Amino acid sequence: MSISPVARSVLAVAASVAALGVTSHAREPRATVAARPPVALRLRIDAQHYRQILQDSQCVQKCRDLQQALTDTLRPLLQRTYAFLDWSTASAGVADTIEIRLIDRPPREVPGSRLDFSIRSRPNTARMTKASYPVDFESFVDISKRIGSPERWHPDSMRREWAGRMHPLLQQPDLLLEVFGRIPITAGVTFRDRGRAVVGVRASDIGAGEGVRPAFRVRLKVTDPARGTEDDADLVLAGCQPASGTQGYACDARQLQYVAQQPLGLDSTIAVLARSTKVPNGVYVIEYATAGQPSRFNGAVLPGALP
Q: Could you give the CA distance from residue 254 to residue 267 in angstroms, rounded to a whole number?
């Protein structure tokens, strides 16, 4: 049986559609990582007492091997903990690099260390409100327990011990707010009545498991006719749940804070949002609240938490 040219065209289109995995009854696209910004990870051992014990003052042998082994161990852990970032890429061409430095904790005379977190970005792109965010890591007591046990200073032993110690530290809520949540995801924001907004990103796009309720910070350009101003401001959106009738999260406005000013109360926040023109310039994940876990953004003003 011969097939007409029109029929051939129809079959070709159908084959192309099938190859793309698209069907007439498809409900929701597959999960995508398009919303997740790619980041690189760099870990450095800059604490001099560690380098001295490893007998590698320039960090070119044992110290370097330990740095690489720790980096390879921490990357999958960070991918699970901060899944709204894409940790799978190499450093080449990536706009943001998360740098974790092991540094000496003062006073230098008493051995101790900190993890010092920072974000290295492209020129004129300041992500964090401070140059770095330090977290205490090992105390003198922790370090002294390895004295007299040379095998515990072997790079592989230290990798296992340090990775176990870093695991709970990396899950501190302040690290999400101050470091990892400072890198914007790719998502649009649609404003609705009464201080409501829809963040156009799916749970699968940001690695939010079932029952997880994220909170977002949205950087806005706010044009307020009542004040006659056009200023940058940060809006906290919380109480987020999967939106009905559209893809994304339906959230409640919690507080609006103009740059270098005190946050507005909830009533003032809703009033400004209602009368203003708002242009989103960045969306940031600032919380993963699970069922039964209280949100830090339940309406309370958090002085100093936002830039």
A: 9
